[in-house]
TrEMBL record, chains A, B, C, D:
Spermidine binds at residues 62, 86, 155-158. Its EC number is 2.5.1.16. It comes from Fusibacter bizertensis. This is Polyamine aminopropyltransferase. S-methyl-5'-thioadenosine binds at residues 31, 106, 137-138, 162. Homodimer or homotetramer. PANTHER family: SPERMIDINE SYNTHASE, SPERMIDINE/SPERMINE SYNTHASE. The active site is at residue 155. It is an enzyme of class 2 (transferase). GO terms for molecular function: spermidine synthase activity. Residues 2-237 form the PABS domain. Signal peptide: none annotated. HAMAP family: Spermidine_synth (MF_00198). SUPFAM superfamilies: S-adenosyl-L-methionine-dependent methyltransferases (SSF53335).
Length: 281, 281, 281, 281
């Protein structure tokens, strides 16, 4: 049977995946959630029709959202994940035995429940005793918090729909306040290639730059996201991801990773010239 | 009108581009050549139905095939391009005023003629006085040549069809012999993500490693190639692309580039762990 | 979300339906069964990836398989349906109050159960007291039966997979024997337009012609089947669908129908010249 | 190479044809004209992205627009074709040796010239001495003409774009006046299946009914038009297509036809019940 999921990367560019089975489809109060089985990517799920996570390349995203910050500051103890309903970011965090507290604030409980059922590969560590799940609006959750976290990971959808506020200046300011003095903010930073994504990348970056003394961007290869060229933002009050990076400290954790490594840690901050220009505009 | 070009990245993954006009379609003695106009990528052309070059992201490929080697050894004088019928690699080479000789061996003259007509953005420097065009089989051309080039750029199609021999051990040996003592070989090295491409990546790498004392691989973001994660191989007799790299020497050339820069030079060799593993298999 | 079901009408012709939800997907011992919800066609289901029945145009098929024969001989009492797991043919038959016995032999019980759940529009009359369901091979069921039915309706899939035997000469002979002297056989007769279907149409017709004294073909517009031009075969021992047709007798039943009517009864046997030629080949 | 032309039959139903070559693409003052080569349908062309004519099933359309009227009144001498730029309707008309005058009024000369070049199968008889070509607006051309034609064939596009006026009441009135007392008007009458087409079918029919004493609709199988179920309108002042039909008179012309025949002549007016209902609404 020919059943194809298509994501329109632009109005004139389609990315299509042959689907074996459409295993879940529900409207939550926030978005439409669909799960599929495919040959190439295993199980994958979409929110409002956009690819979020699949079994084949989720490791790229979850390595890169987590380990760059954890390696920059191996003393991080208290982490807040905003979004990340699939659980993959929490899974990577729980591998660090020294972490004391992992709060995850996901607005849409239905995403978490569906991932627990259909994507245990990512949702497998949500019951770690250090993890607290909050099914709330991340913006409200963080507002008013002071010096509570060493690391905030914004694992959000695109800035349309429920993820929109997570790209606002007010939110970034609240993150700043909620972070300790050596705190780090990592945020989903969109992509430089297709114009719609590049615009959001620039908007997000210009807002964060105003608030955080250190604001950098790093890249990775995410084949199932539009263009495959994806970015995270690294913002902090004091720590520089390269100058303050001690590869040996991270290697001492003894973690095996499929994408991240300490060479790549530095390499991923080396951006193409056109991306650097866009970020300066 | 809805007219869509589709490249099957795998049997179950399609990448589709809405086409405004199909402006050229011919069978050469070697392959089927098609040119299209599109909104997102401007003019693009395919060989045997696979995306080769488009106006939007050709700069990525041509920066990365050329400048990494030129920056590793700024004294390169004699260059051989094998394949590269679109002319983009030669265009980048001609920007180096100190180059003395650029030989380009392309088996399919029809590709060059069509690119001159429809893709002047890449085919614009083929009449530079230092450029000699040979419409011949690259394998035969290089066979028997000794110490004639400082740099060989293998700008080939995938190892199916006319490009096949350019992935053979015999060919790599001939390249070795044709290179000077500090010679460098750059070759199109496929991609680590989809299995068919990863297999060719591994085969190519294992052959080159046997022949060249230094054999490395570097990556870049090429959104219109399958997975967007693409590689070149860097092989040489003596020069190491990082240890022997002098950013200032390259910067002294004063070239403006849209993708390549001297930070990225080092960064692009930092490969994800899964790619490093595949290359060692 | 963009999720599209595609049926390849030929290797180079696709018919695609945007799907809202893929509500069922199972492998039965005989075939793959999938149910979908769509905007244009409502719920539809496929067997081995081919469109069988949808809420929008099922009435065409079920009117035409049933009423042409019932109107030709209003005295029919005993009917056998072979295939027809969706129940639509039985539904139309049960509207005739004077029918005494409706046997339905469907090889794949899972089709019936799924239709009862997801397509009550067709599967709503399977519990009529005159209906007996047999989940058996239609070929075996009919073999050896003599003069047991006034009408046999072969509501089969294409002659690939489980439907294959229902296009064989041995089967048509068994139908002949199982029918009363004024018995009628209606069979799914494929389509004249695309070569693969036209070949099966001709094969089926030439076999039936050898066995039944009267063998005709009638056409209808079935938009969701390949080409939209579909046929049933009308074969009988003595009755001619036009010469023996009494419109008033059928109209006396007082049935409302959306496709069939007594004018169309005659009109549908008027075939285009190219179809007549193909059937004579 | 995978290049597919898609016509959206509705927003959620696509019909796609694999294209070998896109051989022509121009903007005329009236519409966008594209020609393609395909395996299944040979050469085909589209106006504003909608399938008009292809080598495989043009015979259906051109048989049905021409022969039903010519057989109803074998004394027709003067014919006006409005639209029909591909020439297929004129080709069928020229087969009647007794016709004296065939005027064809096509607003878009570029369509005719392109068909002469790429679709000689339909455009082959435009130089018949009885044919006069007028590249004008059909509405203006016919306005004011009195009793000049025995038959008017409106071979138009859909009522969007240049074809719009050809579905207006004023135009139908002008046709009435331009026709002789036993004159016949045949018009492209859209389709009953998909709602957008059914709406136009009803609008057209209700307008014609007001003007012509006799107004009927006949159907045919046109696989490459949306749903494959297509209609022509038959309107006349005095002649009834069935009551006044003399099969022998038409057969005396000795024409071989692939779709039309004298049985089908009557049969094609037998419409499904749902179509009859729609036409009465």
């Amino acid at each position: 049977m020919e059943l194809w999921y298509t994501e329109k990367h632009t109005d004139t560019v389609d990315f299509s995946i042959k689907v074996k089975k459409h295993i879940y489809s529900e409207e939550s109060p926030f978005q439409t959630i669909d799960f599929f089985e495919s040959e190439e990517f295993g199980t994958f799920f979409t929110l409002d029709g956009l690819m979020m996570v699949n079994e084949k390349d989720e490791f790229v995203y979850h390595d890169m959202i987590t380990h760059v910050a954890m390696a920059t500051n191996p003393s991080i103890k208290r982490v807040l994940v905003i979004g990340g309903g699939d659980g993959g970011t929490v899974r990577e965090l729980t591998r660090y035995k020294h972490l004391e507290k992992i709060d995850m604030v996901e607005i849409d409980e239905m995403v978490v429940r569906a991932c627990e059922k259909y994507l245990p590969i990512t949702a497998c560590k949500l019951h770690d005793p250090r993890v607290s799940l909050y099914f709330e609006d991340g913006l409200a959750f963080i507002h008013g918090k002071v010096n509570e976290y060493d690391l905030i990971l914004v694992d959000s959808t695109d800035p349309i729909g429920p993820g929109e506020g997570l790209f606002s200046e007010a939110f970034y300011k609240d993150c700043y306040t909620a972070l300790a003095d050596n705190g780090i903010l990592i945020n989903q930073h969109e992509s430089p290639y297709y114009p719609n994504y590049a615009r959001e990348m620039k908007r997000s970056h210009s807002k964060i730059e105003k608030i955080f003394p250190i604001s950098k961007v790093y890249q990775f290869h995410m084949p199932t996201y539009p263009s495959g060229h994806w970015l995270f933002g690294f913002a902090s009050k004091t720590l520089d991801p390269i100058a303050d990076f001690d590869p040996k400290a991270w290697e001492a954790f003894g973690l095996e990773t499929k994408y991240y490594n300490t060479e790549l840690h530095t390499g991923c901050f080396a951006l193409p010239t056109f991306v650097k220009k866009l970020l300066k505009e």
